[in-house]
Amino acid sequence: MRVPVVEHGVRRRRARRRRVLWCGAELVVTAGVLGLLFVVHQLWWTNREAREGAERRVEALEREWAGGRPSGGGGVPGGAGEGLDGGGPHSGTAPQGSPGSDVGGGAGPSSPGGTGPSSPGGRGPAPSQAYAVLSIPRLHLRVPVAEGTGKRGVLDKGYAGHYSGTQQPGQEGNFALAGHRNSHGEPFRYLNRLRREDIVEVRTAAGTYTYAVDLVLPQTSARDAGVLRPVPRSLVRPAYGYDRPGHYLTLTTCTPEYTSRYRLVVWATLVATRLP
């Protein structure tokens, strides 16, 4: 009977293969752990950090208003009286909402050009300055509103960002805001749950402006700048929007969730103004 002989070279090759496989497995496990830590950071830590910061900013604004100190020029009375209905007729059927939206999402279509409206003192809010509080009772949401839609200075802080070049709260035209759908406080995570006649309030040093949800555009292009016009109407889906001047509020965020491919848009019209 012949005894099989295993050469030393064969043993060395097998040992090298085992080491390569072991190192590969270690790299896969390490990459998985790092990926998990990144997800935890994005979906837990950034949310916690941004929400706590946003809550502190809301409290600071309310203390300023209670003390009679201006918060920096936001919120110009728009000449609308108590009970004003700013909504205009629209073509098509008003959609009733849709599921949708995105990890870094929140920014909407490109902001229209031009400068923002001035405050009663002749100055508008400074870039990234928080100057209002957005409240949506159905979503149990209260977040600051800051000037601009930059990620680092506004959206990643868990704030709603005001599109520069659109109107301010209470003014005739379109007061347009963006917010993250996922991560960084995700204030607009459940924007798709809003329904017709749901209340949205915007409080500033100048007063409180109450809007009622009127239309929901479930999905449009991220470049659909028509939704930000003074009389908002989608350029991609023109059945959604308005055809006459009014006092409008536009809320935009990303859709579907955890992507930034499309935008979800909610429109509301001014129904009441309460001055201090």
List keywords for this structure.
276 residues, alpha+beta, Sortase, Chain: A
Could you give a short description of this structure?
This protein is α+β, with helices and mostly antiparallel strands and 276 residues long. It is built from one helix and eight strands. It starts with 7 loop residues before the first helix and ends with a strand.
Question: Your description of this structure?
Answer:
By secondary structure, this protein is α+β, with helices and mostly antiparallel strands. The protein has a single domain, classed as Sortase (Sortase, Chain: A, Beta Barrel), CATH 2.40.260.10. It is built from one helix and eight strands. An eight-stranded mixed β-barrel has the order 1-2-3-4-7-8-6-5. The termini are far apart.
Estimate the mean pLDDT confidence.
Answer: 80
For the biggest sheet, the summary is: 8 strands, mixed, barrel
Amino-to-carboxy terminus distance: 105 Å
What's the overall geometry? elongated
Name of the CATH superfamily: Sortase
| CATH fold naming | Sortase, Chain: A
CATH architecture: Beta Barrel
What percent of residues adopt helix (DSSP H or I)?
Answer: 10-25%
Domain count: the total is 1
Return the structural class. alpha+beta
Oligomer type: single chain
